Amino acid sequence: MQILIKPIVTEKLNEQGEKLNCFGFVVNKNANKIQIKKAVEEMYNVTVERVNTMNYAGKVKSRYTKSGVQVGKTAAYKKAIVTLVEGDKIDFYSNI
């Protein structure tokens, strides 16, 4: 089971990464905090201090077109905010 799906790279989380040493990931819906902690430590060779998780439900979206109203739903996902120990960093841009 793949735990970490992708990192979240936004302005808000970049600022938190610099100031608070927190980094965000989209994770598997069935993963718990212990599994997320192990996966981040193995993948990035850092020490995790704390893991906070949030479940996001998909929003219902509708739009008006020539053929009528189209209704859909955005994807539901689980987000994890990982706080690292002082001195550790994750660089998402090192492979670019």
From TrEMBL:
It comes from the Bacteria. It holds the Pfam family Ribosomal_L23. GO terms for molecular function: rRNA binding; structural constituent of ribosome. GO terms for cellular component: ribonucleoprotein complex; ribosome. Keywords: Ribonucleoprotein, Ribosomal protein, RNA-binding, rRNA-binding. One of its GO terms (biological process) is translation. The keyword RNA-binding applies. Gene3D superfamilies: 3.30.70.330. One of the early assembly proteins it binds 23S rRNA. One of the proteins that surrounds the polypeptide exit tunnel on the outside of the ribosome. Forms the main docking site for trigger factor binding to the ribosome. Part of the 50S ribosomal subunit. Contacts protein L29, and trigger factor when it is bound to the ribosome. PANTHER family: 60S RIBOSOMAL PROTEIN L23A (PTHR11620). Belongs to the universal ribosomal protein uL23 family. This is Large ribosomal subunit protein uL23. It comes from Plebeiibacterium sediminum. The lineage of its organism: Bacteria, Pseudomonadati, Bacteroidota, Bacteroidia, Marinilabiliales.
